[in-house]
Amino acid sequence: MKTKMLINALCVFCIAIFNSACANYQLGSTLDPALTDVYVPTVRSKVNQPGIEATVTSAILKEIQREGTLRICDKGNASTILDIEIIEYNQGTLRYNSNDQTKAAEYTMTIKAKVIFRKLSGAPEQAVILERTFSGEDTFLSGMDTISARQRCLPDASKNLAEQIIDACISIW
Predict the structure, then answer these.
(1) CATH of the domain at 51
(2) CA-CA distance, 50 to 157, in Å (whole number)?
(3) pLDDT tens digit string along 5-26?
(4) Which string of DSSP letters, residue by residue, matches 155-168?
């Protein structure tokens, strides 16, 4: 009987601890609901990679729609703007062929972007909600020609970049 009472008391204690630990947890976005209407201009680029602006812009718009917290608007109806500039594009060797150490077997693609998410109203010094640099990556095998491999890898690296950017925008602490 004492064992059963001890187990019940322990269960009540654990439930109380769990509830108090989770009391301030918030599921979903921490972004002010008044800031969820976003204008997304075409991504700008400082790199010389054809099509990267369109691919990243498309990935950003798809991620906003998939995630669902932000709502895409024209500039006149938006409360925020998501300004993105690609600042770096790299392709590097991830691993070499085990039979021939001079030939790459797998490559990595990295896209870096400077992101400014800001309010469209209010004082300029208080308008910036998020300003940060993000990196999106993907890998591809060397089994095909490099140009074709890059074109197949670019959307996935862009998607990875978009996921990080949108997650940070809606998770403002």
Answers:
(1) 3.30.160.150
(2) 15
(3) 566 555 555 565 555 544 444 4
(4) HHHHHHHHHHHHHH
Ranges of H-type helices in 48-129? 52-67, 124-127
Q: What residues make up the domain containing 89?
A: 29-170
How much is the pLDDT for 10?
A: 59
Q: Which residue from 64, 54, 65, 48 is spatially nearest to 117, judged by alpha carbons?
A: 64
Q: Which helix (H) or strand (E) holds 37?
A: strand 37-39
Q: How far apart are CA 59 and CA 157, in angstroms?
A: 9
Q: Render pLDDT for 44-102 as a digit per residue (tens, 0 to 9).
A: 999 998 899 999 999 999 999 999 999 999 999 999 999 999 999 998 777 777 777 77
Run of H or E residues at 8: helix 2-21
